[in-house]
Amino acid sequence: MGKDWMVMRIIAGPCQHEGLAQSAEIAKECKRVCDKYGIEYYFKASFDKANRTSASGKRGMGIDATLTDFLALKVTLGVKTLTDVHDAVQVRRIERQFKDAVDVYQIPAFLCRQTDLIQAACATDKIVNIKKGQFLAPWDMAGVLSKCADAREVWITERGTSFGYNTLVVDFTGIQYMLESYDVPVVLDATHSVQKPGGNGTSSGGNRNYVPGLSRAASALGVTNFFLEVHADPDNAPSDGPNMLRLDDFEKVVRDIIAHQYTIQEITTIDRNFEDC
Asked: Looking at residues 207-215, what average pLDDT do you find?
């Protein structure tokens, strides 16, 4: 494991997989934008949103349907993929039946201290992205990372810290601490960071309008890895709609993220070169 500050990567896609056509639309556009600006792209979608606010929350299409479609996306679009896993049994099943469908296993924030799950994911040849629990201090991630000795590669993701009821805040001093203290890439999940867990009663609320500002601030701090949930029609999405970016806004947010690395003139040159291709 080691830092590669020259690599910028973006993980982007819908909260949960809703079907091949929709995921293909999102993945195609996100890949186009990332390719345009020289950013490594990973498509993300969940096969099961196990952590729901209430029993009425929609959870997803399941392992078989979702990862079959992941295989199709990898063939048709050439994208790398990321999905959540919730227990060691799921990891073993995917490794047995859908090994080539997933490039990155993601450990959800509420499960970031589950030793058996982490070690099962790290025992594979996949990258493992561990989301920092909303209840953990940045230095607590040292204990989490101690469970990852067998991993091919590990990322850790900041997705906001609990600040009273139904509210998250992003602690940029904590992000700087993790950047300086851990020899792994640090990711900002800018869309879940603006979530209001359980804020709508039977579902979570949020405000996607804050995503660009948080992303710019993290980029200025030195973060080069970003997680962005994106949807063509987030207001009608089955989960996490209030905090997901609209697909039409994805490129603008990406341009904001890279603005500290490129001058406006350089971005304009990229645009012209891309249009001339």
From this structure: 93
